[in-house]
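re: that complex we talked abt at group meeting.

here r the seqs, copy pasted straight from the sheet so there may be weird spacing, ignore it
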Amino acid sequence: MELLRQIFIEPFETMIALPDLLLQTLWEGFVSGTLYSLIALGFVLIFKASGVFNFAQGIMVVFAALALVGIHALGVPAYIAVLLTLGVMALLAFTIVRVVLKPLVNQPEIILFMSTIGITFILIAGGQLIFGGEPKAMITTELGLPTGSSDWEVGGGIVIFQHIDIAAALIAALLIAGLALFFNKTKTGRALRAVADDHQAALSVGISLEYIWVVVWFAAGVVALTAGILWAAKSDVSFALQVVALKALPVLVLGGFTSIPGAIVGGLIIGFGEKLFDLYWGSPILGGGTESWFAFIIALIFLLYRPEGLFGEKLIERI
Amino acid sequence: MFYREAGQYKATYEADSAKFPIFQDKLFIWAYLAIGFIAVPFFGNEFFLGAIMIPFLVFTLAAIGLNILTGFTGQISLGTGAFMGVGAYACYKMTLAYPDVNILIFIFASGIFSAIVGMFFGLPSLRIKGFYLVVTTLAAQFFLEWAFIRIPWLYNYNDSGAIEVPQREAFGIIVTGASASAEVRYIICLAVVVIMTWFASNIISGRIGRSWMMIRDMDIAAELMGVRPLYAKLSAFAVSSFYCGVAGALMVFMWLGAAEVESFDYNHSFEVLFMVILGGLGSLLGCFLGAAVIWILPVMIRDWLPPIVDAITPFTINSSQADLVSDIIIGVMIVVFLIMEPLGLARLWAIIKQKLRVWPFPY
Amino acid sequence: MNAHDTSFHGRMDDGIEPGKALLHVDNISLSFGGVKAITDVSFDVLKGEVRAIIGPNGAGKTSMLNVINGFYHPQEGSITFRGEKRAKMKPYQAASSGISRTFQNVALFHGMSTLDNIMAGRTLKMNKNFFWQMWRYGPALQEEIEHRKVVEEIIEFLEIETIRKEPVGTLPYGLQKRVELGRALAAEPDLLLLDEPMAGMNLEEKEDMSRFIIEVNQQYGTTIALIEHDMGVVMDLADRVMVLDYGKKIGDGLPEEVQANQDVIDAYLGVSH
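got the structure back, here u go
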């Protein structure tokens, strides 16, 4: 009885009694949701264009952020460091496509997937070897990102908006919109969608597969760098971020592996969901810390009912 | 030259479907077993047995578990570490509750608990395939990691949050705890691994193993041949998790002596997956080879690389940097093997054997 | 047939007289989203006959086979097999009721040997539990060897002794088709569905395959429904022929009747509708 009360009544009582807490939580959920969407978008880009389920996307976020901080620490001005980091990501994209993916064309998906786990391992160890394993502060002010916060009085309490959070949500939204435009309006974008539809057909009309793959892996690198900067500005640059980035996977399950709107909606659902659940149910009933698994368990339950995701197409199996 | 099958005819189907159809293979197996059970404990020192052989055996068992699921049934799992954890915690709770029962019974029984947990997290595999399963097994990984921290009952409310292995006897010999000798622990691990490898190879070559491979190779055709996906997939999850659970119990009771959640985190899931990929998907021999390479290589690099770097370059590296180097080497090996020989070391071994069989002719 | 007798019989014993309908397909309609694959098709397959389904590409022939063995679920209509009318059925249930098949694009288990692939066809006949299998001893070993004998009979029948232990992925296409037929036969089906058994074969391979089909039909009395594009083969093998076009049945009858049917000729020559 007590448990039922804790599950079905008390959380809602708290929500009504403390509206500022609810709003604060929703805002934080929104911000992390946009960042999940951004990371998930990196996955979707690569998956759509090459059918590769890129497990390394999470570590690319960390690697990009580490590279940026590391290059800046050498005395390079912040904006130049960003450019150089983009160069690093481009080089990484080129190397991965050339050395790993190209020899593996036409292999089963599971082999390609496992190769990205290998890449993950190399990037984790390589990143630590080059940049060191200890957490570092993001160069937030040097990049001109805002700090500080604004308060908003609601129902006897205050809701705090960190400026960096506002900036993060805006930048993520802009980047998502920009990528959507790029892939829908430009020639490269069209070629990419052609490749996503049918490799063979795209090859036959003279689209270079290798070029397209380098482009999407670089785009995924740009997404990773952005996500890395924004996330690390909120906490620190460390390898723990990698685990956070893995939450893009349940986001994809919710949204469907090939859907850009799906990645956005899925990210927001996970963002809101895990913050609300942990505050109102996880902490009082289960002792907290539920954010580590909430997204995955939701994805698991969801898969039992709708395996193709919210926006994915239902596949008709042929034989 | 001595590896020949000429003159060895098989008169029955039983002989033809034997595990080691060639006489010399049978001889080698007995020789390996003799070395493993007699020579290694006789000549091996505490360090060699405790820090190299026991972990190698534990990881081999875990790799067999994962290979049953991934290599034989085609279902990817990143939850191996957590399933090992379930076995370890189950064994710990059982032996605390019944201290007088032979610990070996509990080590096997702990596999049953992880089999149940594994089947539960395998349920979504009935509706989904491939990458989606990565997500659900990661759900198992993260949820169970959380449970190992947040449910203090599991570690008996110890302040440290760790499980500490108590001293237990089997057949009148101390087998666990600080005063158990490395030889005894090694022999137990070896016996468990040998028996369970034999069981695994029997299951794989029979109807159940075939139904797993049918699901792996072409699930639709398998279903049209009368394989029920529910049974095939869930039995694979159950058997796989059973092996992982026993491996987890051995890991804590025979090797580490004490463990907390870090011993079962998702890095271990990767480590075991790498052993399977490198050793060979769908090969039991591969599990031994993969575990050997991935466990022993870092130990060697940690010992040898820093002095070499000191001697021939102006840099120095410490042992944790040497570990990173071995991680990179393993990552590179994974990628190289996937490109050159997706079936891993076991396949290389088979090619060498085939060459020996017909030597000196090319084929 | 008693339970311990596992020699090869070719088919189950179903108690239906030869010449009576083994399978009734009544008013089947199947669509995917808005696309109609099959519209209101009825036909029957008599016990002991070779029934051919022909039609231009995309006519719904493979979909029809998929409906019969439970892989697709039609929106309308019913299927009566061995006197049992069924609504929705799972593929493994169809398999256990005595339907087995081959596929248009060979669907062998590529990681397994020829022997194991054909053994896979015996899955439903084997039932020894996990604990016996774990020891590979006693009943489990006994069972394995009994079924191996049956499989060897099939291997001999199909003349593929030399590739018994080869992984099927490395075999040439014609042999793969033959192994697939062996796998379907291993289930000793009442009704054998063959989806383009001769596609992509040369003349010699086609002749071999035709011979096997005729022998299966005549020696074991197995009822066969097949899809085939090679008209010569169809006219030779089939007792009766059904013609599908755009998911509708446009002809049904003896081979020579169908050959003379104007709608069928139009469909193949592509007269505009």
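couple things i noticed - Residues 139-157 of chain C form the longest helix (19 residues). The radius of gyration of chain C is 19 Å.
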